[in-house]
């Protein structure tokens, strides 16, 4: 019999944000593939989970996929987690899911936190229709991407690092106009902060922006009035 592949969501900061089912699966499967064992061990220690960890990340995903499929073909169950949130969402995983489906292996979701959806849900911006951009191109294709995004008639979710968030706000203003944005920082963590305002106001007050931690930017559609 073939094993089962579980795609398990884990917390985006607050370690209490994990489901009982996720804890059970991470304890019961034969192997857990993770991005960084140090990060996953913090979750394991918190919930007394003892299991075999193997590393699976952007760099080795291609050849590790074969290893995962071989384990599943041997009838063993595998869970995949990422450092935070839902695997495969701007994180490694989709290649192995694809390979598993092609091998008729059951792929099962253990849903839970995802920073993109968490940010959207507390933005106050329209949620009926949205586009998930994830990380923007840093150089090549960046302007083209902004021009493309500016035509979308929906809320847009962007992931950004603290180092680049100021530059990205400048580019949103430059290429998309003075949109309303929701700047979500350190969700579920001690310094969680959400600011909803026009980009021009955020830029004028940028000295008060604490450019540390992790950010999701939700950009409102052009005609949205706050
Ligand atoms: N798969 C993950 C998820 O489901 O949330 C996203 C992984 S992606 C590599 C990491 C990015 O997610 C960060 O750069 C940041 O934009 C966003 N992110 C993750 N955790 C966050 C948090 N607690 N607060 C705000 N943004 C967060």
The set of bound ligands, ions and cofactors reads:
S-adenosylmethionine
Strand order of the largest sheet: 3-2-4-1-5
Strand content: 15-25%
Count of discrete alpha- or pi-helical segments spanning 4 or more residues: 8
Structural class category? alpha/beta
Cα distance, first to last residue? 55 Å
Number of strands: 10
Q: How big is the Rg?
A: 19 Å
Proportion of residues in helical segments: 25-40%
Largest sheet: 5 strands, parallel
Q: What letter string, H or E per element, gives the SSE order?
A: EHEHEHEHEHEHEHEEHE
Residue windows where pLDDT falls under 50 for at least 5 positions? none
* Morphology: elongated
Output mean pLDDT.
95
